[in-house]
Design the sequence.
């Protein structure tokens, strides 16, 4: 679109994350005009709470909306993103782009053909620490950033066993595609999405499939090990064509403490931030006066990253132009890394990406 | 040898680490009978302090000793280790085995032909936390240990620029071969030295060669950037044939805080220890009573690791049998990883080790 009236937005997929988006969307300068879900109880809940129609056929929503937020399980991203794009709508697509690289590539192809655009829901980029780091990078405070240590490790945090998150056919994978996707995206974002060269890594499934899986909290209901057939940890090393590298640690479960730390290492300075706590510190040096090291702790504001992401999306829908970040090409780059780690784990070999 | 009299030991290389060994050796149940150095001032200092002869020709020492501790710069390990082994002496060889893989292989060949043995000076293995972790492994407390995060990162700790440590021809490399060797050795030790499959990694030289290298402390005298032509950091991922993996971070200098942490991750429990602080914690879980997580902090004793290493060496010399650990084959495995990381960094590709 490109007008001054508030864009008409719908939600496709009315589960937890769909609900999360809807509650924020009503705060945006946009009109929530409807939702889509194949499950009747989800539709009824949505209609009751938000006072708009919930359809079982997405085309009915497309007829009344300018744009949609797609929050279905991964396996259905392609179906709804492609049909919405084909209908000319703009799409905010929850991460990961898709459950598989092939499916992601089909979404990208549809976006290229469409009048609409597809923005990818990497909400962590909208956190204060990340935006401050990116700003410092633009000011060339770090020099050449050439190595990132990226961690998204839960000691115990397998999502509800038996939910779609732990079902390979629906999710496309486990911890790596669910939360590793954020770590990979942030790392590539800090490196300005360079050309990828080589990925080596391992995924493991050691906890979720056990009768004796010990946990204090679960994200959903636990129906036991039978509902679990995906990875619950991943470790990898990513090498870019320009020589920059990423060390990656991901886990839903691991016998080590939770670790949400990122280290951004540059030739002039570095940054550390903790994704969960929002702690942010810059590490520099100086030779003025006398040789010294500088640790700069930065107080940051806690922001609602999904809300900030939506605001960018709504602005872009109104302007009729895809935002310059969270692009579908970036989503595809992240998906290629995920796919390469799964393939590398399967084969036991590093996977080359430059020549593919 | 194999007798009840104290073994006669000599030191080859009378610099800092040679002196460090000599001061400890006089506490052992062994006789310090002499030293070797090509530099006259080093010999004079040694003779004055320890009251034994310091030779410039190693064969003169070999005539009066049962065993030697070789503490020369890396480039000369081969010369002295091989000549001592050829003379039938036992050798405690400071890490790394050699300045290059080829040189290391020649030492190994000499050891196989010799009546003596060659033990490698990986002293970190003798620290309390490491011995406690290995004991817990033998009791099968961790289940299958399948991933190690190994860090030996100094924020600023380039050794004296202009010393042999920062001279590629003499040291064979920089941070990776100097301190990375400890991290690699400990990681492989925790994994019981499995067959290696693939190594990918990068070494960088970003700080030591700069005019504006900012540092608070240096290990030796600083003669400026001209004396520096080696790596000052390395990141790598090591994959073993049995699927276990190692993530490695090494630095003499990096814009991040110092990091000496090791995480040993098993299927039943894990361990964390900080090489510098000796902090040690075991991370487990339980389902008895109720689901729970257990963090077990372990107070450890600070021990002199070089002294403990020497005690094992002296016992082995007396018994006439190589110790079952710190073996030359282990030293060679570590050297193969170092060599592979350097090659991988050079080529930008992962290096296969299984089929070599």
Sequence:
């Amino acid at each position: 679109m490109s007008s001054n009236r508030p864009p008409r937005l719908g939600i496709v997929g009315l589960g937890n994350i769909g609900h999360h988006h809807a509650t924020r969307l009503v705060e945006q300068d946009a009109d929530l005009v409807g939702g889509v879900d194949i499950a009747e109880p989800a539709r009824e809940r949505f209609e009751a709470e938000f006072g708009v129609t919930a359809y079982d056929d997405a085309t009915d929503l497309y007829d009344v909306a300018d744009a949609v937020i797609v929050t279905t399980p991964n396996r259905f991203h392609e179906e709804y993103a492609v049909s919405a794009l084909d209908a000319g709508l703009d799409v905010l697509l929850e991460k990961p782009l898709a459950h598989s690289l092939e499916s992601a590539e089909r979404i990208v192809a549809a976006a290229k053909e469409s009048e609409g655009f597809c923005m990818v829901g990497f909400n962590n980029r909208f956190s204060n620490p990340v935006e401050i780091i990116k700003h410092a990078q633009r000011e060339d405070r770090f020099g050449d950033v050439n190595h990132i240590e990226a961690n998204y490790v839960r000691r115990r945090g397998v999502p509800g066993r038996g939910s779609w998150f732990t079902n390979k056919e629906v999710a496309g994978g486990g911890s790596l595609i669910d939360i590793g996707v954020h770590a990979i995206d942030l790392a590539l974002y800090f490196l300005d999405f360079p050309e990828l060269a080589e990925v080596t890594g391992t995924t493991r499934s050691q906890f979720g499939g056990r009768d004796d899986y010990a946990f204090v909290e679960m994200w959903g209901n636990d129906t036991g090990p039978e509902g679990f057939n995906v990875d619950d940890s991943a470790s990898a090393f990513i090498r870019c064509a320009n020589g920059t590298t990423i060390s990656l640690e991901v886990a839903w479960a691991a016998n080590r403490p939770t670790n949400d730390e990122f280290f951004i290492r540059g030739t002039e300075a570095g940054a550390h931030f903790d994704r969960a706590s929002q702690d942010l510190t810059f590490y520099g040096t100086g030779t003025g006066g006398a040789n010294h090291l500088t640790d700069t702790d930065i107080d940051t504001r806690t922001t609602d990253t999904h809300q900030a992401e939506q605001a960018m999306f709504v602005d872009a829908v109104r302007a009729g132009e895809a935002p310059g970040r969270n692009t579908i090409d970036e989503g595809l780059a992240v998906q290629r890394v995920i796919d390469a780690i799964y393939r590398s784990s399967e084969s036991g070999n590093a996977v080359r990406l430059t020549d593919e």
In short: The longest strand of chain A covers residues 145-153. Chain A has ten helices and 15 strands. Chain A has a mean pLDDT of 96.
